Amino acid sequence: QVQLVESGGGLVQPGGSLRLSCAASGSIFRINAMGWYRQAPGKERELVAHITSAGSTNYAHSVKGRFTISRDNAKNTVYLQMNSLKPEDTAVYYCNADVISSRYSGFDYWGQGTQVTVSS
Question: Which one of 56, 89, 104, 107 is separated from 27 by 20 to 30 angstroms, measured CA to CA?
Fold first, then answer.
């Protein structure tokens, strides 16, 4: 079994910073890619940032220049450094991982989400 656990969310003022972490655990052979998604009230879930096993990244237009995604392959962990936060960044942030295990050649796993609230 594979489990993803997010942490690091909370309440921050506009212009502030937060660092999200997502650790994958279980019977993992390899993680091909990891990413962060978010869903705000009344909106659909959207991709925030994505990183491949080789370290290639891409970002949603709304967060480019403010957010940075990174990963520690030894720890099966992905991070999202969020700077210059805006109220419109308020959402539940979800971790995603494409995992290669002993049972599956590739399977998407999701964390339960962590709340990020940007407000003065």
Answer: 56
